[in-house]
Amino acid sequence: MGETQPSTLNEPTDPDVDLHAPAQRRELRRGQWSIIAAVAVGGAIGACARYGAAQLWPTPGDVFPWTTFWVNVVGCGVIGVFMVIITDVWAAHRLVRPFFGTGVLGGFTTFSTYVVDIQRLVDHGRPSTGLYYLAATVLSALAAVWTGAHLTRQVTKWRQS
User: Fold this and answer.
1) Residue 153, CB half-sphere, CA atoms under 13 Å: how many?
2) Prediction pTM value
3) Which residues contact 98 (CB under 8 A, 6 or more apart)?
């Protein structure tokens, strides 16, 4: 099977690239730095926004962590809206998805803190609250993505009529 070489930086890299071969590693590196930078800058912005939310609405370790819950639900709702807009409505620049979707929203939502919050609730003798939080976050986040995508499709369909 012949290997494909991208003719421009905007083409995808062959998924069969052998990273042990120096020439093929260089192929992978071409065009990747702008994506890495977009994710890093977006991630820093999203993480700062999440940190700001935690500072504005701090939650003690023994109560339901509303701030983390709402950050994750809102972030998931926005990702639903965003994905419809950049896939169905707008031909976005190739760095928009890595910057905003992976970077900003990935840095803003915090499922690692979600897990730490559950552990903190259990450690404070609140395992039922931790279990409720575990289920409520997953269900609410999935519902937020679906709702955001569904409503955005409805609005864009209505505007195109």
Assistant:
1) 11
2) 0.77
3) 35, 38, 39, 42
Residue 10 DSSP label: T
Q: Express each pLDDT in 72-120 by its tens digit.
A: 999 999 999 999 999 888 888 889 999 999 999 999 998 889 999 999 9
46 vs 140: CA distance, rounded Å: 20
Phi-psi region of 65 (alpha: psi -120 to 50; beta: other; left: phi over 0): beta
- Residue 158 is encoded by which pair of tokens? 């209505």
Cα–Cα distance, 68 to 75 (Å, whole number): 10
CA gyration radius, the chain: 20
For residue 3, pLDDT beyond 80: no
Hey, what are 4's tokens? 């494909």
Q: For residue 27, what pLDDT is reported?
A: 59
